[in-house]
Each structure stands twice: as C-alpha cells, then as structure tokens.
Amino acid sequence: MIVGIPKEIKNNENRVAITPAGVEALKLAGHEVYIESSAGIGSGFTDEDYKGAGAIMLDNAADVWGKADMIMKVKEPMAPEYGYFRDGLILFTYLHLAPEPELTKALVEKNVVAIAYETIQLPDRSLPLLTPMSEVAGRMSVQIGAQFLEKPWGGKGILLGGVPGVLPANVVIIGGGIVGTNAAKMALGMGANVTIIDKSENRLRQLDDIFGGRLRTLMSNSYNIEMMVRQADLLIGAVLIPGARAPKLVKEYMVQQMSPGSVIVDVAIDQGGSIETIDRVTTHSEPTYVKHGVIHYAVANMPGAVARTSTLALTNVTMDYALQLANKGWRQAVLDNAALAKGVNVVNGKITYEGVATGLGYEFTELHNAI
Ligand SMILES: NC(=O)C1=CN([C@@H]2O[C@H](COP(=O)(O)OP(=O)(O)OC[C@H]3O[C@@H](n4cnc5c(N)ncnc54)[C@H](O)[C@@H]3O)[C@@H](O)[C@H]2O)C=CC1
Ligand SMILES: CC(=O)C(=O)O
Fold first, then answer.
1. Domain with 354 in it: what CATH number?
2. Catalytic residues, which ones?
3. Mean pLDDT across the stretch 85-114?
4. Which stretches make up the Alanine dehydrogenase/pyridine nucleotide transhydrogenase N-terminal domain (predicted)?
5. Which residues' Cβ are closer than 6 Å to ligand 1?
6. Where a domain ends, among 245, 280, 300?
7. Alpha-carbon distance values, 125 to 64, 204, 359 (Å)
8. Structural domain span for residue 185
9. What are the pLDDT digits (tens) for 308-318?
C-alpha cells in the first residue's frame, strides 16, 4: 500500500502524522511512504531524516493525496483539501465530524473511507488514540489559563497558587476524564484550589481516590455548575460524549456571573464546545476573545503548539493501527479489530458512527451493513 503524509495546514498545526520510526516500520512491512516536503519540520524532523528511513519526499500536497491509497493526517482536512477526496481513499486522522457538516458532506459525497482517531474505542471504553492528546491538552489548559489570568494578558491578576497569607485561585474543571485529570494534576501542582465536576458517580469516586482529598468533586447538574462557575477564576471545559457534539453545560447567564478578568479554556471545542458563550473556534494566532468581561480560549488543536512532544505521543499510539490498515486493507483490518471498527465514521457514502449521524441529521448505518 502507498501511505501518504501531507503537511498539516491548520493554523499553527506543527504536528505531523508520522515520524522516521513510523516510516521504517511501514517500509519493513513492505509499504511505500510518500511525505510532503517539510511536513515534519514543525516537530523537529527534517526531509533528510525521513529519506534516511526510506520515505519518498514529494513537493506538493496534490501529489501526496493523488498517489496515496491511505492518507494519514493529524487534524481534520480543511476546505482546500476536500478537492483531493476520491472514491475509496482511506483517510486516517482526527475528524471530530459532529460539529463539521461541510467536511462530513464532502466525505459522504466522495465515498471516502474515513477512520477517526478519536472514536477508536477499546472494550473498556477508553479511547486510545485520543488519550495522549487529551493528556497534552489537559496539562496545557492550566498553563494557558495561568498565563491569561495575568494582568498583561487581560486577566484579573491572580497567581494560581497564591502565596502564604493570600488565597489561591479557584480552578473549576467540568469533565473528569483524561483532560480533566491532567488539568487537575497541573492545577494542584501549582497550588490552586481545584474542583472537578462530572456526571459519573464512579468517576468522581475514582478521582477522590486518586487525589486523596486534595481536590473537591461534585456531581454534574445545572445547579452545581452555576454555583461553581460563579466562583471560578479559571474554568476548564473537558466533557466528552464520544463522537457526539459536546453538551452546552455552561449557559450564558452563568458566564455573566463570573468576575471580570476570569478565564475560560474550553478544551472540548473540538467537539463543538461546552460553554454557551463560546460561539467560535479560536486559533493559536488569535487564541482568545472577551465576552461579558471573561477571557474565552477555544483553540481546537492545542497540542499543535507543543508539536515535538505531541507528535511523538500521538504516533506512539497511531502506528500500530496504521500498520493493521496497510497490511490487511481497511475492510479486513476492521473486521479483525473491533476497536478499530469503532473508528470508521464514513464508508461507501454512509455514516457509520451513531453520534455523528444523529448530530448532523443523517441516517445511521451499522458498519456491517455499509461494507
Ligand atoms: N482542544 C484540543 O486541542 C483538544 C481537545 N480534546 C477534547 O477534550 C475533550 C475531553 O476529552 P477526554 O478527557 O479525553 O474525554 P474523556 O472521555 O476521558 O472524559 C470526558 C468526561 O466527561 C464526562 N462528562 C460527559 N458528560 C458530562 C456532563 N454532562 N457533565 C459532566 N461531565 C460529563 C464523562 O463522564 C468523562 O469523565 C474531548 O472533546 C476531546 O476531543 C482533546 C485533546 C485536544
Ligand atoms: C484531539 C485533537 O483533535 C487534537 O489533538 O488536535
């Protein structure tokens, strides 16, 4: 199989879908790897590094997309890339289709086999290809929040950890999964006063055990969310219903009660966002805007800013699945691996992931009926 790796074109997306080690693994398995020139530069991999591992470097994206049987990316294709879609092309990347009707339409119309990293799911319900980037984004959310709480960045001028004799900041995290747990670790490490809200009683119990009473846990309901949002200096949105659009748990009237110069970091923006006042996706170039006096941060590719760490962490988990797809072909690979089958969102013009179909008003087709 020919595997193609285009350079990412999303704003400040410095990650790349393969490392030289991944190229070598595919070559050893008998495949060809075509990479767009300079695709790895943002992550510290040169064209020479890739050539040394056996890749063929191509000068433009059109050639990579045109020659490949399977395209591996990091972020969902952007509008200028939709023209490269074609019948039977395998696309293996983050997709986050629920808030992306135009992309979904293009994939359906062109019969692309679209396999989303973020919906591959193991029997224990974990999401192995989302986890490392959620670890990165969770940790980043606190350092970003701490920065924007500083006065020169428009914040209220609060140090997360306080100092002896002065109270620390209140960090409120909605969603206690991978992002939420990693955010909590960082916020506690910086000395903040941390509360995690989740709808799963079991998860709250686990968090209480993990953190040994160093943070507060709270059941998710509108009453509790309003109470905690009002007190938050830094509010972090970290909920997920796999594949589906994020629920808008924080309403506008709640944000209006936050004190001026507070900060919201909505990590769940890639699934449409969990905060009602977040009405746009922001970018690393222009990461924030102010509404009701509160700084809103809604960057959908946060890990792209720490690309070296993120590329290594991401490819640690993607390559095994990429090899299965390349070695067996997508059909046999998904028949043999139920976790990988959960990643298939679009095939033969049908939507095969229920959360995406429901969210965007398409008919849902079970995978076995679509292939
Ligand atoms: N913006 C970015 O650059 C990045 C965004 N993400 C996104 O962050 C989000 C969270 O990801 P993970 O932590 O890996 O997911 P996860 O599945 O590990 O955790 C989600 C948590 O949300 C909780 N939850 C669901 N509905 C809730 C509700 N109504 N109230 C309170 N809690 C609720 C679940 O019980 C679960 O504990 C996802 O949308 C993911 O795609 C992840 C990485 C990077
Ligand atoms: C999860 C995701 O979309 C990202 O890491 O950018």
1. 3.40.50.720
2. 96, 270
3. 97
4. 4-137
5. 118, 130, 133-134, 137, 174-180, 197-200, 203, 220, 238-241, 246-247, 249, 267-271, 300-303
6. 300
7. 34, 17, 21
8. 131-300
9. 999 999 999 99
